[in-house]
Write a structure and sequence with these properties.
477 residues, alpha/beta, Aldehyde Dehydrogenase, Chain A, domain 1, Aldehyde Dehydrogenase, Chain A, domain 2, 2 domains, 15 helices, globular
Length: 477
């Protein structure tokens, strides 16, 4: 805790203005581990002030075309400020700069898609006249905003995942109180200022930073919050759902993504996808490749090629153009991954490559001879580790994939259409990606999982469904 006037300092963003607080906290550069920014720490009264501002703003009309215009302008401004936002992401997340540019571009697209969807919100005709006695009636439904949405976002993609909540929420006509991760809050505060520049009325988007549990408790206890949209851990998601009562809750809670490599696939393509989408963002993506099931007949060739591709990655400073993989979000997280890998090796897993830590840097790691009850297979490792197992029969590997508490997305590499169709029907996930890795995502597709991976869907059109209520209108003519 503390403040330093020599580094950029940010207040809370409430009702269109920055709000200073007594307490502040430092946000570290994840590579140097030195303070890069100072942000305010919200107390209970600040959270309730933000909620009240959101509620008051929601009462003021904002037409669908106005929402479209504001979101489209915000998208354009984000493209103009691409360098500034990418630099911020590189510092507070630790991702390689080229990946940060990619996130900014995707976030701009998410806002643009949200803008377009703001003009497409519609209900449907309901043929009540088909019921005896209702011949002189007509009916239709409309979709109306839920009100104030509390959006709670994670550290790993703190710009695009914020846009995936804020964009659809505003497009649907709601107001938002945003709580970004305390590890990466600055890009969210910058985004709020950008929205103001785009013409968003004060109070429609408020940002409160600081201690997650304390702010979460304040949000949950307020009856003025109508919906919660949360991305994070199963533990917190379950608590939030239990506390929210009858209010709407949308949860994205992670995965231990399984990927199948069948003997008939393009093996070089599978290797490239598994490597790129297992280790980018240092493996800190909900749909990162974690479990890989390779047909026993191609296991040795696959592992050999994956080892060579993995060892070609450059690990280091995210601002260096040569860097492929930057640091994890914190030293303690890299230490946790290190301990899980060490434990797996003690339990019989074989280290093919990696297993090395330097501060918050954890080198991309491949394990073989893993068992399903090892932490590196059973839990979500959220780090740059790929665990390789084998199979011989299709039914066997589908059972292995489904032997998980999670079900967000899975990948399948095969040329066998019958296998692909069987997998589509039987694998228990929200999304099956064929001939690409589990981490494939574009921003307008429906994205969400089953089991402990959560409930509800992201993707602007689908999130708007979650963030509105369907109201029926019946006319007696």
């Amino acid at each position: 805790m503390g403040s330093n006037t020599t580094r950029p300092a940010y207040g809370l963003y409430i009702n269109g203005r920055q709000v200073s607080t007594k307490q502040t906290m430092d946000v570290l550069d994840k590579y140097t581990l030195q303070p890069a920014y100072t942000v305010a720490v919200a107390e209970k009264e600040h959270v309730h002030e933000a909620i009240a501002a959101a509620r008051d703003a929601f009462k003021q009309p904002l037409s669908p075309y106005e929402r479209f215009s504001i979101l489209a302008k915000a998208s354009a401004l984000l493209k103009e400020r691409r360098q500034e936002f990418a630099d911020t992401l590189a510092a507070e997340v630790g991702k390689p700069l080229r990946d940060c540019f990619g996130e900014v571009d995707r976030a701009a697209m998410t806002l643009l898609i949200s803008a377009e969807e703001a003009r497409r919100i519609h209900g449907q005709g309901v043929p009540v006249e088909a019921a005896p006695g209702s011949e002189n009636r007509m009916a239709f439904s409309i979709r109306v905003p839920v009100g104030v949405i509390a959006a709670i976002t994670p550290f790993n993609a703190p710009l695009n995942l914020v846009c995936h909540k804020v964009g659809p929420a505003l497009a649907a006509g709601n107001s938002v109180v945003l709580k970004p991760s305390e590890l990466t809050p600055v890009v969210a505060l910058k985004l709020a200022e950008l929205f103001a520049d785009a013409g968003l009325p004060a109070g429609r988007l408020n940002v409160v930073t600081g201690d997650g549990p304390a702010i979460g408790a304040c949000l949950v206890e307020s009856p003025l919050v109508n919906m919660f949209s949360f991305t994070g851990s199963v533990r917190v998601g379950l608590w939030l759902k239990q506390q929210a009562g009858l209010r709407k809750v949308s949860l994205e809670l992670g995965n231990n993504s399984a990927n199948i490599v069948h003997f008939d696939c393009d093996l070089d393509h599978a290797v490239e996808m598994v490597a790129n989408k297992g280790f980018n963002t240092a493996g800190q993506v909900c749909i990162s490749v974690q479990r890989v099931y390779v047909h026993e007949s191609v296991k040795e060739e696959f592992v050999s090629k994956l080892k060579a591709r993995t060892e070609a990655f450059v690990v280091g400073d995210p601002r260096d153009d040569r860097t492929d993989i930057g640091p994890m979000i914190a030293v303690k997280e890299a230490e946790r991954v290190e301990s899980w890998v060490r434990e797996a090796i003690e339990q019989g897993a074989v280290l093919v490559t990696g297993g090395k830590r330097e501060g918050a840097l954890y080198y991309p790691t491949i394990l073989t001879e893993v068992k399903p009850d090892m932490k590196v297979c059973r839990q979500e490792i959220f780090g740059p580790v790929v665990a390789v197992d084998t199979y011989s029969q299709i039914d066997e590997v589908i059972a292995k994939v489904n032997d998980s508490d999670y079900g967000l997305q899975a990948g399948l590499f095969t040329r066998d259409l019958n296998f692909a169709m069987k997998a589509a029907k039987e694998i228990e996930v929200g999304g099956l990606i064929v001939n690409d890795a589990s981490a494939y995502r574009v921003d307008h597709m429906p994205y969400g999982g089953v089991k402990n991976s959560g409930t509800g869907k992201e993707g602007p059109a689908y999130a708007i469904e979650e963030m509105t209520e369907e109201k029926l209108i019946v006319l007696n003519l």
